[in-house]
Amino acid sequence: MKLYSAKSTFQHDEAPAVGVLVANLGTPDEPTEPALRRYLRQFLSDPRVIEIPRWRWWPILYGIVLRTRPKKSAAAYSEVWEQDGSPLLSIGQRQAAGIRQRLQALNDRGPFAVELGMRYGNPSIPAALRRLRESGARRILVLPLYPQYSASTTGSTFDAVARELMGWRWVPELRMVGQYHDEPVYIQALARSIREHWEHEGRGERLLFSYHGVPERYLLDGDPYHCQCLKTSRLVAEELGLEPGTWDVTFQSRFGNEEWLKPYTDETVTRLAQEGVKHLDVVCPGFSADCLETLEEIAGENREYFEESGGERLRYIPALNDRPDHLEALTALVLQHGQGWREVDGGRDPEAEQRRRAETAERARAQGAER
To answer: Where is this region: Disordered (predicted)?
Structure first.
């Protein structure tokens, strides 16, 4: 029995590639109760997500949550499911393809291999890493599509990558993008998307920046997520020239009974409507791709809260998704964090490198190697 896995074939003259793992949270395989049960079991079993001792959490998870939540979640996913499947997955595939196309267009750099991997569900992070290995990646850059760092997202992605690499015989050089919440290319893309939305749809009286919530104790225990969300919002507001009092920061998607980061999005949209705000715009800068939390929770559920409380129009401003400026920003992050790797720095001479690889293969065969 082999303890460690390796690339299926190896040739001494192959060109080593830089692999880019584009990672996101994940999605169920289909909007059905069995599929949601599998997905939620994996998601809610992650100790990075639920920081409760297992002996306390398992009875709740298996005795209550996995018996009641899959049906409700399946119904919610059915509302956003598209002809080609989960929006998060289809957008993620287009994002990975766009980054790949832009990297491969850099003639004096590379070669590059780009794969999409989901922390939960499919395509999985282990499967994506193995595909990168088969593409010849000896250096891998992990790009989690979470602009703001949280242990429950970016930290969990690192856990999944490390767990897979622990079983590899030849471990690649590894780098990871920890956060990009204040990168100018990201801030400018966000501001541009908001301006374009206002040009086409009109501008609301207030702009709400809504982020996925986490338990408040994560912040108190040292997680920087809350601070980074506030900074992203401030920088975008400055880029847009917004006056104080015309924008707010809130947190959505809370789960369970403990205190989460406040103010809560649902309570805020209700309060704003009751205070007389008629037109409200909501943007979700923490989501790099539209998904259940943006399409169903914000554009659907919270829009209803707003209108039922007296508001006239809540408009959701789409995530950056596969906008060209977003893909260019993500590609720039890859190049920035890959500095020092000769495949990334540029100035390659492909013909000279091919000659050197051929010479290496010839020497290897002279020593008895098959390839």
So the answer is: 341-371
